Amino acid sequence: MNAGIHLFGLLPLLRWIVLGYQGGLTANPQEFLTRSSGIWALVLLWAVLAVTPIRRLSGWNGLLRHRRKLGLYAFFYTVLHVIAWALWDRGGVPSAMWSDLWQRDFIGIGALAVLCLIPLALTSTHGWMRRLGRWWSRLHWLVYPAAILSVWHFDWMRAGKNDFFEPRLYAWILAALLGVRVAWWVRSRYRQRLKRRAPQSN
Q1: Which three-class secondary structure state does DSSP give residue 168?
Q2: pTM for this structure?
Protein backbone atom coordinates (compact mmCIF):
# COMPACT_ATOMS: atom_id res chain seq x y z
CA MET A 1 0.00 0.00 0.00
CA ASN A 2 2.82 2.39 0.87
CA ALA A 3 4.45 1.83 -2.53
CA GLY A 4 1.07 2.34 -4.21
CA ILE A 5 0.62 5.73 -2.52
CA HIS A 6 4.06 6.88 -3.65
CA LEU A 7 3.40 5.60 -7.17
CA PHE A 8 0.11 7.50 -7.25
CA GLY A 9 1.83 10.65 -5.98
CA LEU A 10 4.75 10.46 -8.39
CA LEU A 11 2.81 9.28 -11.45
CA PRO A 12 2.07 12.80 -12.79
CA LEU A 13 5.72 13.81 -12.48
CA LEU A 14 6.88 10.64 -14.23
CA ARG A 15 4.30 11.21 -16.95
CA TRP A 16 5.55 14.76 -17.55
CA ILE A 17 9.13 13.51 -17.83
CA VAL A 18 8.12 10.86 -20.38
CA LEU A 19 6.00 13.33 -22.36
CA GLY A 20 8.82 15.86 -22.30
CA TYR A 21 11.28 13.27 -23.59
CA GLN A 22 8.86 12.30 -26.36
CA GLY A 23 7.97 15.90 -27.20
CA GLY A 24 4.38 15.33 -26.17
CA LEU A 25 3.79 18.28 -23.84
CA THR A 26 1.40 19.89 -26.39
CA ALA A 27 2.14 23.02 -28.42
CA ASN A 28 2.29 25.06 -25.20
CA PRO A 29 4.22 23.00 -22.62
CA GLN A 30 4.31 25.84 -20.08
CA GLU A 31 0.52 26.12 -20.01
CA PHE A 32 0.14 22.34 -20.00
CA LEU A 33 2.41 21.91 -16.97
CA THR A 34 0.83 24.84 -15.12
CA ARG A 35 -2.67 23.47 -15.59
CA SER A 36 -1.69 19.82 -15.04
CA SER A 37 0.10 20.56 -11.76
CA GLY A 38 -2.98 22.43 -10.53
CA ILE A 39 -5.29 19.57 -11.48
CA TRP A 40 -3.12 17.02 -9.70
CA ALA A 41 -2.93 19.21 -6.60
CA LEU A 42 -6.75 19.09 -6.56
CA VAL A 43 -6.90 15.33 -7.19
CA LEU A 44 -4.52 14.60 -4.32
CA LEU A 45 -6.23 17.04 -1.97
CA TRP A 46 -9.56 15.36 -2.74
CA ALA A 47 -7.87 12.01 -2.06
CA VAL A 48 -6.88 13.32 1.38
CA LEU A 49 -10.49 14.30 2.07
CA ALA A 50 -11.71 10.90 0.86
CA VAL A 51 -9.64 9.00 3.44
CA THR A 52 -12.03 9.52 6.36
CA PRO A 53 -15.24 8.56 4.49
CA ILE A 54 -13.56 5.47 3.01
CA ARG A 55 -12.22 4.47 6.43
CA ARG A 56 -15.58 4.90 8.14
CA LEU A 57 -17.53 3.08 5.45
CA SER A 58 -15.05 0.23 5.02
CA GLY A 59 -13.54 -0.03 8.50
CA TRP A 60 -10.07 0.13 6.93
CA ASN A 61 -8.28 2.03 9.70
CA GLY A 62 -4.84 1.44 8.17
CA LEU A 63 -5.68 3.94 5.46
CA LEU A 64 -5.21 6.78 7.96
CA ARG A 65 -1.46 6.12 7.99
CA HIS A 66 -1.24 7.23 4.37
CA ARG A 67 -3.22 10.47 4.63
CA ARG A 68 -0.14 12.50 5.51
CA LYS A 69 1.73 11.28 2.42
CA LEU A 70 -1.22 12.16 0.18
CA GLY A 71 -1.35 15.60 1.76
CA LEU A 72 2.34 16.22 1.19
CA TYR A 73 2.04 15.16 -2.44
CA ALA A 74 -0.92 17.55 -2.81
CA PHE A 75 1.25 20.33 -1.39
CA PHE A 76 4.14 19.34 -3.66
CA TYR A 77 2.02 19.78 -6.79
CA THR A 78 0.58 22.99 -5.36
CA VAL A 79 4.13 24.36 -5.04
CA LEU A 80 4.92 23.26 -8.61
CA HIS A 81 1.72 24.99 -9.76
CA VAL A 82 2.73 28.24 -8.03
CA ILE A 83 6.29 28.06 -9.40
CA ALA A 84 4.98 27.45 -12.93
CA TRP A 85 2.66 30.46 -12.67
CA ALA A 86 5.38 32.67 -11.18
CA LEU A 87 8.08 31.78 -13.71
CA TRP A 88 6.16 31.21 -16.93
CA ASP A 89 3.06 33.34 -16.56
CA ARG A 90 4.62 36.27 -14.68
CA GLY A 91 8.21 35.87 -15.87
CA GLY A 92 9.54 35.60 -12.31
CA VAL A 93 8.98 39.35 -11.80
CA PRO A 94 7.78 40.07 -8.22
CA SER A 95 5.90 43.24 -9.20
CA ALA A 96 4.03 41.33 -11.93
CA MET A 97 3.12 38.59 -9.46
CA TRP A 98 1.92 41.13 -6.91
CA SER A 99 -0.27 42.98 -9.40
CA ASP A 100 -1.69 39.66 -10.61
CA LEU A 101 -2.86 38.87 -7.08
CA TRP A 102 -5.00 42.01 -7.05
CA GLN A 103 -6.03 42.31 -10.68
CA ARG A 104 -7.12 38.72 -11.36
CA ASP A 105 -9.56 37.47 -8.74
CA PHE A 106 -8.93 33.78 -9.34
CA ILE A 107 -5.21 34.30 -8.65
CA GLY A 108 -5.97 35.96 -5.33
CA ILE A 109 -8.31 33.13 -4.35
CA GLY A 110 -5.68 30.58 -5.31
CA ALA A 111 -3.14 32.43 -3.17
CA LEU A 112 -5.47 32.19 -0.17
CA ALA A 113 -5.77 28.44 -0.74
CA VAL A 114 -1.98 28.12 -0.77
CA LEU A 115 -1.73 30.13 2.47
CA CYS A 116 -4.13 27.65 4.09
CA LEU A 117 -2.06 24.68 2.95
CA ILE A 118 1.35 25.99 4.07
CA PRO A 119 0.81 25.52 7.85
CA LEU A 120 -0.67 22.08 7.20
CA ALA A 121 2.44 20.95 5.36
CA LEU A 122 4.79 22.50 7.92
CA THR A 123 3.04 20.85 10.88
CA SER A 124 2.42 17.43 9.30
CA THR A 125 5.10 15.61 11.33
CA HIS A 126 4.53 13.61 14.51
CA GLY A 127 6.74 16.08 16.36
CA TRP A 128 4.40 18.94 15.54
CA MET A 129 1.41 16.81 16.52
CA ARG A 130 2.92 16.37 19.98
CA ARG A 131 3.89 20.05 20.29
CA LEU A 132 0.50 21.40 19.28
CA GLY A 133 -1.60 18.80 21.10
CA ARG A 134 -5.32 19.37 20.60
CA TRP A 135 -4.57 22.50 18.58
CA TRP A 136 -3.07 20.34 15.84
CA SER A 137 -6.43 18.91 14.78
CA ARG A 138 -7.99 22.37 14.95
CA LEU A 139 -5.25 23.82 12.77
CA HIS A 140 -5.71 21.05 10.24
CA TRP A 141 -9.32 22.08 9.76
CA LEU A 142 -7.74 24.56 7.35
CA VAL A 143 -7.88 21.75 4.80
CA TYR A 144 -11.59 22.53 4.33
CA PRO A 145 -11.28 26.23 3.41
CA ALA A 146 -8.21 25.29 1.34
CA ALA A 147 -10.29 22.80 -0.67
CA ILE A 148 -13.18 25.23 -1.14
CA LEU A 149 -10.84 28.04 -2.21
CA SER A 150 -9.00 25.68 -4.57
CA VAL A 151 -12.10 24.66 -6.48
CA TRP A 152 -13.30 28.28 -6.47
CA HIS A 153 -9.96 29.31 -7.99
CA PHE A 154 -10.35 26.60 -10.64
CA ASP A 155 -13.92 27.62 -11.43
CA TRP A 156 -13.10 31.31 -11.86
CA MET A 157 -10.02 30.49 -13.92
CA ARG A 158 -12.20 28.55 -16.35
CA ALA A 159 -14.84 31.32 -16.39
CA GLY A 160 -12.79 33.24 -18.95
CA LYS A 161 -13.20 30.32 -21.35
CA ASN A 162 -16.80 29.62 -20.31
CA ASP A 163 -15.71 26.04 -19.60
CA PHE A 164 -17.21 24.99 -16.29
CA PHE A 165 -17.64 21.23 -16.65
CA GLU A 166 -14.41 20.11 -14.98
CA PRO A 167 -14.39 22.60 -12.06
CA ARG A 168 -18.07 21.92 -11.36
CA LEU A 169 -17.35 18.17 -11.35
CA TYR A 170 -14.66 18.72 -8.71
CA ALA A 171 -17.06 20.97 -6.81
CA TRP A 172 -19.73 18.25 -6.70
CA ILE A 173 -17.20 15.69 -5.50
CA LEU A 174 -16.08 18.11 -2.79
CA ALA A 175 -19.71 18.74 -1.81
CA ALA A 176 -20.19 14.99 -1.37
CA LEU A 177 -17.00 14.63 0.68
CA LEU A 178 -17.99 17.51 2.96
CA GLY A 179 -21.67 16.61 3.01
CA VAL A 180 -21.06 13.14 4.39
CA ARG A 181 -18.98 14.69 7.18
CA VAL A 182 -21.80 17.08 8.05
CA ALA A 183 -24.30 14.20 8.06
CA TRP A 184 -22.11 12.18 10.43
CA TRP A 185 -21.64 15.21 12.69
CA VAL A 186 -25.40 15.86 12.85
CA ARG A 187 -26.08 12.19 13.60
CA SER A 188 -23.42 12.19 16.33
CA ARG A 189 -24.91 15.30 17.96
CA TYR A 190 -28.38 13.78 17.79
CA ARG A 191 -27.22 10.57 19.47
CA GLN A 192 -25.45 12.55 22.21
CA ARG A 193 -28.68 14.41 22.89
CA LEU A 194 -30.62 11.16 23.14
CA LYS A 195 -28.07 9.78 25.62
CA ARG A 196 -28.37 12.89 27.80
CA ARG A 197 -32.16 12.66 27.78
CA ALA A 198 -32.28 8.91 28.52
CA PRO A 199 -31.43 9.16 32.28
CA GLN A 200 -34.00 11.94 32.71
CA SER A 201 -36.76 9.85 31.14
CA ASN A 202 -35.94 6.99 33.52
Answers
A1: helix
A2: 0.91
